Amino acid sequence: MVVLVLPVFFGCTGNASTVKSDDDVEKRVESLLSEMTLDEKIGQMSQVDPGVFGGLENLKKVVRNGQLGSVLNLIGAKEVNELQRVAIEESRLGIPLIIGRDVIHGYRTIFPIPLGMAASWNEDLVRESAAIAAKEAASMGINWTFAPMIDVSRDPRWGRIAESAGEDPLLNSMVARAMVQGYQGDDLSDPLTIAACAKHFVGYGAAEGGRDYNTTVISDLQLHNVYLPPFKEAVKAGAATVMTAFNEINGIPASGHKHNIRDILKNEYGFDGFVVSDWASIQEMISHGFARDLKHAGELGLAAGIDMEMASRSYNDYLKELLDEGKVDMEWVDDAVARILRIKFRLGLFDNPYVDESLADSLLVNVEHLKVARKLAEESVVLLKNENQVLPLKKGTKVALIGPMANQPYEQLGTWIFDGDENDSQTVLEAFNAFNGDNNVFFAEGLEYSRDKSTKGFAEVERAIAQSEVVVAVVGEEAILSGEAKSLAELDFVGAQGELLKLAASKGKPVVMIVMSGRPAGLFKTQHLAKSILYAWHPGTMAGPALANLVFGETVPVGKLPVTFPKGEGQVPIYYAHKMTGRPADASTWTHIDEIPVQAVQHSLGNTSHTLDYGFTPLYPFGYGLSYTSFEYSDINISAKSLSIGESLKVSATITNTGDVEGAETVQLYTRDLVGSYTRPVRELKDYQRVTLSPGESKEVVFELNSDQLGFYFPDGEFVVEPGDFHVWIAPNAAEGLRAEFELQ
Ligand code: NOJ
Questions:
Q1: Ligand 1 pocket, mutate which of 75, 200, 213, 279 (most atoms under 8 A from CB)
Q2: Which residues, 6 or more positions from 335, have their beta carbon under 8 angstroms from its beta carbon?
Q3: 232 domain-assigned
Q4: What is the pTM of this model?
Q5: Closest approach atom of ligand 1 to CA 146
Q6: pLDDT category, 1, cuts 50, 70, 90?
Q7: What is the DSSP letter of 695?
Q8: I want to staple 422 with a disulfide (CB 3.0 to 4.6 A). Which of 56, 64, 330, 410 is the partner?
Q9: Ligand 1 pocket: which of 161, 484, 487 to mutate (most atoms within 8 A of CB)
Q10: Domain, as residue range, for 653
């Protein structure tokens, strides 16, 4: 436990009695706003990066003049305090800066990438990880993280799928809520909490072809039912800020989208924090072909409702002129500044602007934080396959540990780890040696890095395998191959990893594959080579101990896929909540391409929605994940055959542990609305619960389902609950489960 002793000078505001009420805050905002000059107001609406802006001394000048509201990427508690001192003591009104940074899955203690966190389906742990990230970041003077990223992502080619919670609106909403609560805590003015930023508003995950920054075409039906709900949840959880996206949606750049930002986010959702652009996304409206020049871009950005401009300078350079010309409203400027000040007040920055420079010593990467990082890494790993129960291995088994990700302290951290340090990392090799004894671990990477095409290390791999009973191959992709601007056209393993796996499998010893990757990747052509597969995403600082615990059975896997695994990129987009179509695919109507008779007549094969080569099922469905034990689902029960609008019913099933060890299962509740005024998905996740069972034990899992959970948004954004027939499943994943029916009257 960390005991914090704050010097009086810093005035600890964590105590509830010092928290300002909303009324107080609003009064202070109003009074400050009334004292501000136009230049000072425009200053509050600008955010710059010191590196790009020409260093700290240059920054001090504009801060002193009251011409800057925020800085991103200012590193070091001392540097932050120094610049903050200039803002407080040397600027006319002493308005503090808000210091932003991308703290995406941990600050110095690195947790699994967000896609991995989502695979845990463990809201408490995700919240805890964000709270830890907030403490560590706050100790370095950071007040604001650009997270959570809650873009529903259905395309594994898109490198930023790594940062999201995957394909499902409900799971993204869970992560949105957990992270906002974790970063912000109960009291934003506590010096160890920071402001969250829900991003990227909106639709960024729908980039055509999975190519980052690309155009999106999103129907209003999808916008309201798939892409917006996580943002609504983030606002409900109290997210202090929202960031707009780089993409255009149906012809309008997200950063110039007045309807989405002003009408939906601010008015309909009642969001009272501030909206920041993404990096130069206001200026980029020129490249989009939406703005004529920087001045026009600024006009469109403000009209759309962006309160703070990140990196580009259209507000700084042109807002005055635009006001003079009557092209933008003073009301918009005042509203933007009020929103920014409101968050600064809520953060307690006016009363407590400085960071205690000694805090970091006890906080960064401390033992408690590492424990949570290990636990979350363990829970994020998904067991995809375990033929003949090869896993878990017995302690003392002779293991050939191979593969280019087995001992890569940097690569295991994943994307967006500006402040992570590979020296903190514990690798699989280190953890195997420690747990299994180094005389039982025969290590030979085979490849120096994931893209390595040279097979010169293979001879050593053969020698390692010759001395072992089991091969553990840690493969995947380096950190730099996922994340922003790291899209891929192909999903197969890069470099000579396919050949390495073939070599390993050819020796007649069971192969356990561990995959560290930022996306669902590479398994269709290689999975048959392994008896067991642990899909580990990029697990972070504690990858090694987490995976050693899983491989040797100290911990039983619980992870479930937050995203569908396609057989290949040609199947993308593929997601569980697809529509039925007029010609739904089914196994009896599909003939594999190799079995089609030569010169078969056009209509001799089933004309249903599939592809001749891959069929219509994915490699692994959403929600899928095995355990070292097995679970049986039985006796689905429904408390009523019908319910009226405003009522709820109970759906239950019995889950039994039919294996030999204790294990936990994430039980999922799905529904289908059979007939709608707009067609509805074949299944939608509505809820889930984790149940822990000893061998032979059964438990009844009960879900309460209310009529609101059965409604959906019409294209105009109206939420409608339509009477009709429904199916409901209690299921281990999106492709299986027990089904019942009911009617909504
Ligand atoms: C661009 C990214 O899209 C965004 O997610 C990030 O927060 C900003 N850059 C700031 O680094």
A1: 279
A2: 307
A3: yes
A4: 0.97
A5: 7
A6: very low
A7: T
A8: 410
A9: 484
A10: 631-744
